[in-house]
Specification:
This is CENP-V/GFA domain-containing protein. Belongs to the Gfa family. Keywords: Metal-binding, Zinc. This protein is mostly beta strands. The protein has one domain: Metal Binding Protein, Guanine Nucleotide Exchange Factor, Chain A (Beta Complex). The protein has three helices and 13 strands, in the order E-E-E-H-E-H-E-E-E-E-E-E-E-H-E-E. The strands form four sheets. It has a six-stranded mixed β-sheet with strand order 8-11-4-3-12-13, with no helix packed on it. A hairpin with a 6-residue loop joins strand 1 and strand 2. The protein is globular.
Amino acid sequence: MATNTSLTNTPTRRLYHGSCHCGNISYAVYLTLPPVVSPDPPLNSTIRIYKCNCSTCTKMSLFHVRLIDAPSDFMLLSPLDLTAGGLKDYQCYIKNAHWFFCGTCGVRCFTIAGEGELKVVEIEGEKKQAWMLKREGWDEEHGMSYFSLNAATLEPDQEGFNLKEWTEKGWIAYCDSKDDVGEFRLGEPHNGGMY
């Protein structure tokens, strides 16, 4: 059974696992919880948890988790080759972001704008091969790179992980991107958004 992450107010970096519904997509990710509760905290200062009211995010039902350091914090364990491994790719607007989804079950686990590479990583004492975002050239600050994890794909009942707590503690921000405003707020969604 999941336990509360906020037994202490000290942010703690911990490994979590997630997947699509059929298991074709499998990943490990480091989340630092609890986050700093702010409508729009400085980039890379804390994880940012939010829901956006733009048509893309709303229709895909995305629940964004933006990592502190995506090239270090996200490890795709399966498939290791995104397109040959059965992932489908959707791109819209300027087509710099890849809204990958499982070709079997249709679940979207993450969105990427940036390059990746295979690395050997140690996860829970075991060496594994993983696809990770390339550190070289990674630039979220200027909008050249982007990574967002879909929180709904994190496995339930992991120690220190509880989506119900995220809502109860007010950790979820709401972004107003429907009309290209980009404003964040806490407490309730903007027009056209969802809880």
